[in-house]
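Attaching the record inline, Q. Sequence:
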Amino acid sequence: MISYLEFEKPVAELEQRIAELRAASEGDDVDISKELKRLEEKSATLLASTYESLSPWQKTQVARHPSRPHFRDFVEHAFEDFIPLGGDRAFGEDEAILGGFAKLNGRKVVLIGHEKGNDTASRIRHNFGMGKPEGYRKAIRLMELADRFGLPVVTLVDTSGAFPGVEAEERGQAEAIARSTEACLALGVPMVATIVGEGGSGGAVALASAERVLMLEHAVYSVISPEGCASILWRTAEKAPDAAEAMKITAQNLLELGVIDRIVKEPVGGAHRDPEATAKLLADAIGEELDMLSRNAPDELRRMREERFLQMAG
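Structure, as predicted:
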């Protein structure tokens, strides 16, 4: 069952009417197929036009949709033979950041990403995708393994930000994020990062400092959440839509600014409407990027990363 966002109410009303007509026609001799077809076409057209003109704040809502595919969904639909590896060999396991060995269209890779969970229990277990120091240190360990065995690194970024709790600060959150960013930049193997939902602050950059950064069409990527920005600038989170507009957080904005390299299309109505198709589109895009990057020597890959981030600073 689809959970509709506020701006999707007209679509929801049409689809509810279609469902009621179908239910009413069961066992009835009256042929309503033409009316059903007309309403279905109208609903599809309305859905497409709605998603073609989303505001940055609406895209933020889509990126946070409760049914949007997360790390485990992409593992299921886009990767094969996933072998999870846990622990940072220093403190413990962090289930907000998952990773391990996998295959992408037959190519062996090291896969790392945030997992938000898909129901109350799993969201609590995965800490809503907010990584702790041990999660970023696990990511570093996996990147070092990738470098050692000559395997490309693929990351799937989906977090509102790193966990801000006292215990995380006590265990060196800022240092862990900085070291993870450094590990990305130092890799001698190809790295492709994709923002699949939210890309929030340093918690996202720590897994996205790659030579190629992709974004799903309705994902968002920013230094702070729109609500956080609004609270600082206007002293109220109600200004979040204005903050989202001003911060240029959408994939389309960021491609134009040169922060990302490629937008991966989503099915009409967002990734949550067809996670399997989304995963297939993403797998193909990442595979194409890895094919291109595999021709480069380690020093060239490091130079590519250095240049892309220095250009942003310029």
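The first strand starts at residue 80 and ends at 84. The beta strands are 80-84, 97-104, 107-114, 153-159, 191-200, 212-216, 220-222, 262-264.

More tomorrow.
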